[in-house]
Amino acid sequence: MSRFAALALLSAAAVPGAAAWGAMGHETVAYVATNYVGSATESYFQDLLGDTSGDYLAGVAAWADSFRYTDEGAYTASFHYIDANDDPPSSCGVDLDRDCADGACVVLSLQNYTTILIDGTADKANLQMAARMVIHNQLAGDIGQPLHCEALEVGGNDIDVEYNGDDTNLHSVWDSDIAESISGGSSLESAKSWADDLVKEITSGSYKSQAEDWVSGLSVASASEQTSTALTWAEESNAHVCSTVLVDGVSAVEDHDLSGAYTTTAQPVVDLQIAKQGYRLAKWLDAIVAAQ
Questions:
Q1: Is the bond leading into 89 cis (omega within 30 degrees of zero)?
Q2: Distance between CA atoms of residues 186 and 195, nearest Å
Q3: 32, 279 Cβ separation under 8 angstroms
Q4: Does the N terminus or the C terminus of the chain have fewer Cβ atoms within 10 A?
Q5: 60-88 pLDDT, tens digit each
């Protein structure tokens, strides 16, 4: 097991769903993944999660965001992000030794819970928790949200902005507002509809030629390969901080309303990240089941 696996094993009590990418964003990633998992993967996770409906991934996709705010789950708060101590917009990059020195970040959380699932010796409650954390943190999908891979101003939480005239912060805009501007809402139906659109693009549209590249190098064969894959994806997300999120620096967004041109520019990035993370989630889960 990885260096904090012992801390990660505990009974996973039922906790109501919550937010990040907004709950709707997490659910969209999960619905995309549902279209691409193999039959053995579907059977394994439906059985483990006790849900034979088509919502078996989406139903737990946002669970970890609620769990982190309980007394029992407070220790998992740092598992949702990696604080890249870089210098956007002039320089972006993730350094695992620098940015995850204590081993408690989204990259090593993904590795840890993946190892628990592959090993398969934990009791059912802890296997369920591992599945929920992989589905959420791996791809459904904190690691795909650029500001979950950035330390500046607490991942943008301390950058005050407006959205449609309402006071908010930059992190929240990327978690929820831009995603909802694409999907048209925050409901489960909005997630399903958005996922359907993205699946069409992956299967036969603008993403078709890219999809296999998204999972190039994906491996769960060892802890080091799991970490390497997750780190690559975190670095990819972090790069968007320089290229899109803060391309013109903090001053260009702070105290500005971001619901206009900024959102129009950001929407293709959010679309891409949600589609990419959904496809990757499917292939990561397939790899876990194949390795058991």
A1: yes
A2: 13
A3: yes
A4: C
A5: 998 888 899 999 999 999 999 999 999 99
Please say if 256 is a catalytic residue. Answer: no
Q: How many CB atoms lie within 10 A of CB 16?
A: 8
Active site residue 142: yes
Closest to 36 (Cα-Cα) out of 233, 286, 205: 286
Query: How far is Cα 284 from Cα 182, in angstroms, rounded to an integer?
Result: 26
Contacts of 193 (CB under 8 A, 6+ apart): 183, 184
Query: Which of 55, 68, 99, 280 does the annotation list as catalytic?
Result: 68
Predicted structure pTM score: 0.92
Instruction: Give SS3 for 184.
Output: coil
Tens digits of residue pLDDT in 153-164: 999 999 999 999
In terms of Cα–Cα distance, which of 1, 213, 291, 260 is closest to 126?
A: 1
Is 21 a known active-site residue?
A: yes
Question: What are 149's two structure tokens?
Answer: 């891979």
pLDDT at site 13: 33
